[in-house]
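Re: the 418-residue chain
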Amino acid sequence: MDWTIQGVIELGCWIGHFPHRWPTGHDAEDCIDAHLSCNIRHLVWELGRSVLTYHSDLSGATCAGLRPEPPGMGAQQRAVERMFGQRCQLRAALSYSRERGCTVYGRLCMNRHYSPGTPHRSAFAQDHPQFLEMHRDGRLDVTRLCFGEPEYRRERVEILLEAARIGCRGLCLDFCRQPPAVRYHAALTGPFREQTGIDPRTLTLSGDRERFLEWCRFRAQSVTDLLTELKAALDPIRERSDRRIAVQVRIPGDGLAGNLICGFAVEEWCRRGLIDEIALSELRWLREYQEWSEEPYLALGREYGIPVLSAHNCLPVQSGGWSGQCNPRGVNPWVAARRALDAHERGAAGVCVYQTDLGVQWPGLADALARFADPEQLRAWVDDPAVQARYPVTDENCHFGIDNHSPPPERMLSADEL
């Protein structure tokens, strides 16, 4: 079995958290070279979240660096905007990766739109308040839009298709920023009530598990519809270009029931051939689902011939969320290496490492990452007593590698709140 190390890159962070990079320049090439120095040749390149981080030709797209400067922008954000505006960094990365023999996927954060008034919110999100998701109690969720709305699905699909036409070898649909993908918009609750006679807002996991999961299965169909529509539009591009263009989904690895509550009918996606790869993240977000076994996904991978990439992260969990400040006491290169070796021994197809833009620059961590690609070298490093002594495991760093957006237990969402 092939063993693949994927580096998930956010180029804005490559320069944003390092002021010496703010003058910008050949940032795509520099970032790729740093990954190659760590033997990472499979790159997952950001397309954006709500605002896009490449030069899009789509009508109505909001692109970083190609818009009037949003209010309240600091020096760091201005440097990032300038870098994205100087040239299309995605096209630059694709061109340079061909020279260096790298594989580049385009990664879109599927449903993260931030709050109104922030520079991270697109005009599409701002101009379509009718698509805003809703909490169970009827409050608007201003950071998410509803996949039950065909126009919103089309906006997401068109971005992914453009990335495929530009030349991305694969597409990463990142659903880990931010769960849940679906909630209680009228486009979902109305049809369910008409079909069943039940108001889904009265259903809870603790009260009626089967009925609640029936509702979750119903609303998850909207995300399945997006994947179906993507495949229908992507297949002709694949045929014309004679390229595979893999569709990868990045999802929390908290089990298939937890995924369903989030909006992901993973088993159906595999059965219908809607996805080509699964990349996992240990995002600890749902209070009732804290069992972290990759075996259900590996079993699906074996059944349907779908590579499953194990979860990893270069950023430690931050109390209060990621703010650009990395807690060095939460980073442990030996724990990172042990985690990657465990994935190989479980039979994963590889490891998907989030934000290697920081990891390839981090002292010690870069040394560990450079060994991921060779399991035998990785095993020797993990088993070396000198390495173990250099990186002692503590309560603060023993879980290094889980998703840095994982909140503390008291702030996790309950399924009864979704």
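Strands lie at 4-9, 42-48, 103-109, 132-134, 140-145, 170-174, 246-252, 277-281, 308-313, 350-354.
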